[in-house]
Fold this protein.
Amino acid sequence: MDWLGEGFKRAIDLIVSGDAETWHAVWVTLVCSLSATVLAVLTAAPYGAWLALRKPRGHKLQAFLLRIGMFVPTIFIGVLVYGFVSRHGPLGSLDLYATRTAIVIGEFLLAFPILGTFAYGALAKYDPRALETARTLGAGRARTFFTLLGEVRMVLLSAWLVALARCFSELGISVTVGGNVRWDTRTLSSHAMLEVRQGDFGMALALGLILCLLAIPVAIVAHYVSQEEKE
Amino acid sequence: MWRALLLVFLVGCAEPEAQPVRLATTTSTANSGLVDHLLTAFTEETGIRVKPMVVGTGRALAAGQNGDADILLVHARPLEDAFLAEGHASERRDVMYNDFVIAGPPSDPAGIRGFERTLYPLLKIRDTGSLFVSRGDRSGTHHRERALWKDAGIEPEGLEGYTEVGGGMAACLIYADEKKGYVLTDRGTYLAVRKRKPFDLEILVEGHPTLRNPYGLLLVDPERHPGGNAAGARRLMDWLTSERGQALIGAFRVDGETLFHPNARP
């Protein structure tokens, strides 16, 4: 069990020494997770809101599917995306396999149901007639829609943080479609997995700890958001 | 000798529910189906159960060192010799070998098809800046890769097309297929991946003795790590290196191809 203490020591060493490979993995993790979740906020939040406010035909089924989507394992998303982006798949000509773009696509699919479900849940309680009322008061339809989205911004922020946390820690997508390529698509979690495979548990623990450090600012923001919501 | 045999006999009789022999082995032997093929016959013939633990050579040696395994079937000769020298194992025996090949895209941009030695192909891969996919994980295969580059007088890290993919042999093969690169692989994993998914890579370089990949059996020293099934482990070692075990290894086929060649000394 020496590697336990060693893991903590090496985590500090890696950070202090500015180990290039570790920082690259931090960068890949951040870039992919942030891109994927911001894209999800921009698309899934309006979609969830649209389901909740406009109540189109089949909105309940769609909301249910979004909810199911939150339970889909990342390895399933990874394999599914691989099927599309592989050179042998329908999007093969784009040569997306083992690129950060492919990881972003997968993590976007991971984040989308989270944002969609939270947005739907937050707005479902609004009376659809509120939209009509606002319109009669002279507000444009689109403006009303985004005003209501703004009303639930704290919920959306929480949802974004949850999605971000899942993207930071996921392994199934970054390994399956990212390929865990050194200096290219290797994230903190896929790097840690490689160290486990090599029997270097100390290094794996160190990388896991760095991932935890990344999560701390996210956790702090999430904490204050939840405080503000209660008030 | 007689005492050992008697002990095996007594252990066999007195404890029919003896704990299974813990065999640590590598993915190449397990993924191909060889381990199941051999262990099924062994258990049928001797009544001794074996619990295989499938890991890389590095992990397998670590398991032996920690007393988590009774016997190892691995492929990294220098590491095996060190393991024996350090007294972790009481005995090492040759058992079989399989072979490495260089696989690459059918278009073969470096023009290496048909060579037996790897020297010229590696130089061509370097000179054409072709993609070469490395395991980069200190596995037995990675050690061999490094040795072959060294023989060719090339330091591969820093080469334009040299890419490390961390995910095991199958992951490297899939990456090489997707990106039309070259890769050093054991024949068994190559055949297994080709069978399972759309896959274009072809075997381009094969056949030279330097591409042989010998497997050793290491008996974990029972005095250093008591509590395992040392008698069963010895039976397994004797059986695998016996005429019967060797014949079964040689008869094992995947898609009609021989993967492992027995080479135990009688």
About this structure: Residues 77 and 238 of chain B are 20 Å apart (CA to CA).
